[in-house]
Amino acid sequence: MKTLLLFLRLMMVSVVAYCQSPATTRLYFIAMPANSLHTTLNPDKPIKVGRCTLLETNADSLGIVVTNKKTAYLHFERGHTYYFRVYGGHSVQSMTSLVSETEFWLDVGFNGASNYRHYFLDKEKGLTLLDD
Predict the structure, then answer these.
(1) What is the CA 45 to chain-centroid distance, rounded?
(2) Which N-terminal residues, if any, form the signal peptide (predicted)?
(3) Do residues 72 and 58 make contact, with C-beta atoms less than 8 angstroms apart?
(4) Listed range (14-23, 40-49, 53-62, 73-82) with the worst mean pLDDT
(5) 3-state SS string over 17-64?
(6) Domain locations in the chain?
(7) pTM of the model
(8) pLDDT tens digits along 72-128
(9) Of 131, 120, 126, 132, which Cα lies nearest the Cα of 24?
(10) Vertex 110, ends 94 and 62: CA angle to 5°?
């Protein structure tokens, strides 16, 4: 009986801890040269990705519009932070990589973060530029 009560208590603590975790996911992008990103949550308002761009969202996934007929979906774990490096642009073939936090900040440091943008993408309200 004591084991069962201890198990139930641990389950309740786990649920409370999970509910108190941050409700947003942070996506950092570094792009050389600067680029723009269209998602299914903001198809008409592009996200300008420059040397250092933070996209914070309360969505659990993000559909990135690649072409008119193709959408790539990224699925997230709530409260986690992800780092992406984007090389290339519209005229050359582009390459996107999920990188470690250390790699990302080294790229920002060595290449200079001349501009920083912070967006919030709400799944109901859409895109808001918080800092430019």
Answers:
(1) 17
(2) 1-17
(3) no
(4) 14-23
(5) HHHCCCCCEEEEEEEECCEEECECCCCCCCEEECCEEEEEECCCEEEE
(6) 23-131
(7) 0.75
(8) 898 989 899 999 988 765 555 567 788 999 999 888 888 776 678 899 999 888 899
(9) 120
(10) 40
